[in-house]
Amino acid sequence: MDIRSLFDIELPVIQAPMAGVQGSALAIAASGAGGLGSLPCAMLALDRLREELETIRAGTNAPFNVNFFCHRVPTVDEQREAAWRAALAPYYREFGIVADEGPAGPGRAPFDDATADVLEPVRPPVVSFHFGLPSPALVARVKSWGTKIISSATTVDEACWLESRGVDAVIAQGVEAGGHRGMFLSDDLCTQVGTLALVPQVVAAVKCPVIAAGGIADANGVAAAMAPGAAGVQVGTAYLLCPEADTTPIHRAALQGETARHTALTNVFTGRPARSIVNRIVRELGPVSADAPAFPLALGAMLPLRAKAESQGSGDFSPLWAGQNASGCRATPAGELTRALAARIG
Amino acid sequence: MDIRSLFDIELPVIQAPMAGVQGSALAIAASGAGGLGSLPCAMLALDRLREELETIRAGTNAPFNVNFFCHRVPTVDEQREAAWRAALAPYYREFGIVADEGPAGPGRAPFDDATADVLEPVRPPVVSFHFGLPSPALVARVKSWGTKIISSATTVDEACWLESRGVDAVIAQGVEAGGHRGMFLSDDLCTQVGTLALVPQVVAAVKCPVIAAGGIADANGVAAAMAPGAAGVQVGTAYLLCPEADTTPIHRAALQGETARHTALTNVFTGRPARSIVNRIVRELGPVSADAPAFPLALGAMLPLRAKAESQGSGDFSPLWAGQNASGCRATPAGELTRALAARIG
After folding, report:
1. Measured between beta carbons, which residues in chain B are less than 8 angstroms from residue A323?
2. Structural domain boundaries of chain A?
3. For A38-82, how does the pLDDT look when each residue is reduced to its tens digit (9 = 90+)?
4. Cys-Cys link to B209, which of A11, B48, B76, B231 (CB 3.0-4.6 A)?
5. B225, closest residue in chain A (CA to CA)
């Protein structure tokens, strides 16, 4: 089944949820153009989530997707916290920042019943998850609203796991994709494969529709990703320069230069591997640091550095999320981009 | 320009040269079916090369490709050799192998004038290189025969470098590909990108035809790889089960199981990053070992272990070269496979 009929949309293009760089405006534009716009909710407090949902409902009648993380909340490992603070200490000194000695609090809350309480009156057409799925009870609760559930798989094993737990479609997230890897059954980065290798193997392994993600930047990329049997695509990076995105000027500049060609899977920003343009902190502490506390605990100690550096016009400590193919990034309205992405689809 | 007109072949499919697992038989079958068969020559002594070329000339009138490595021969670093022997010592003890204390000799010779002397009377239609190009004089010598020259690029920078030195086409080798990474301008594995991300960026950066490689396993994969503007494809892994290949029974068995889903870029077999199915030695010493001597010096010390383990039916120390998509591996004749790969090409 094509995702057009699954989600009742015109174009088989999902605008990927990108926490921290977009809100309802981008989702409304993508959905309004016939794709499936997405609201990333991992960083939203419940009040803010309620407001954003109202904004979307007011902004479009078209189907949309709301996205949540469903990681397990980690216990604080004091030794790792100390090692991480020690690793960052030279940078704190360089920028004259006084270290907060307390453990960094979680900056991302996983999906829970309180979140579901906010969603229930809205009954969003689609909910997507990253890092697996919430509890079976929560999955059942969301499905009871008539909401379709999708989640990311980075391996065949993860795709089968998701299908067996009732998802309506699987997002096959190739290693090219920007932002956080959706991986949840293994933390071995060697298991992560390219989109062109992942999609056909997932298509062969599951019966549900497969949505291709990773490295897709334009209409040719959409055609390429769908050729092995994908039912649709999810595209993120290409939307980062759209006027409706909240991408910072520093991040926008990085995406437009040759620097964007050099990305890495790094855990230095959040504790989980995520693809960012390689900048100073990725180069010096990463790309993968054994000291980085478990997701999302690594975040806290990096934030003051990021804020200070950005205030000086530097992206040296910012997560410059990007996939391996930033060639599709254009400062064009998201609706136009959505239609352009689907231009070769029959 | 499509590679069909560039190489005067019927199908835009290059059977990838795979040193150690195939010879003239596979090349003849692929060329005979209308694709471009390849003879991997990196491991052939000159007498053997001469024989294989004669065999191909006798076996087919169709164009074919001969492939060479063009690495710089490394100087032996005694400290690294010692560290490598120390890392392997426990395995030598386990298998009762007496260590040869001399430095491991190079097992792969780069392309040179003596090799060109053997090629010249044959004037092979296509010569492909891996790890860059030989000297400009050697490139000019090969081109003077009317031979087309191609080489692998793993980044946009490498593609531009190759084009500026006169290649007739660039192979864009995505990170999914099996065997050795062709990378030569950087040894940073973070620079290596998926086929779906690499191909369009290379197509945009160079004027010469671009051949897509990596993760392509079947007709849908060929269509996918060509959608972003590739002029043809190069496929390796899918040929490994063909009766014309010399793939060992151990390697064939690994390709057919779930083990084939877990590959890694490892330097433990040769000193250069190459994609192999993850086996015991990759898991225990790699995937990337700082102790492994420079290519090809890491080879020598591993060979006795490989031989002993294989004699006991184990592939624990064998390079089980494979790309990230082994789903196209079939024990069908290579000619049939070549035609099947091109089935969706107009």
Report:
1. 197
2. 1-71+108-237+328-346, 73-107+241-321
3. 999 999 999 999 999 999 999 999 999 999 999 999 999 999 999
4. B231
5. A224
pTM for the whole thing? 0.96
A227 vs B215: CB contact, 8 Å cut-off?
Answer: no
Superfamily holding A1-71+108-237+328-346 = Aldolase class I (3.20.20.70)
Fold designation for B1-71+108-240+326-346: TIM Barrel (3.20.20)
Determine the distance in angstroms separating the CA of A234 from the nearest CA of chain B, rounded to an integer: 14
User: Residue B94 is encoded by which pair of tokens?
Assistant: 């386990």
Does the beta carbon of B232 lie under 8 angstroms from any beta carbon of chain A?
no
Mutate to test the interface with B, among A156, A160, A196, A220 (most CBs of B within 10 A): A196
> Nearest-CA distance from A335 to chain B in Å?
22
Q: What is the ipTM, given to two decimal places? A: 0.95
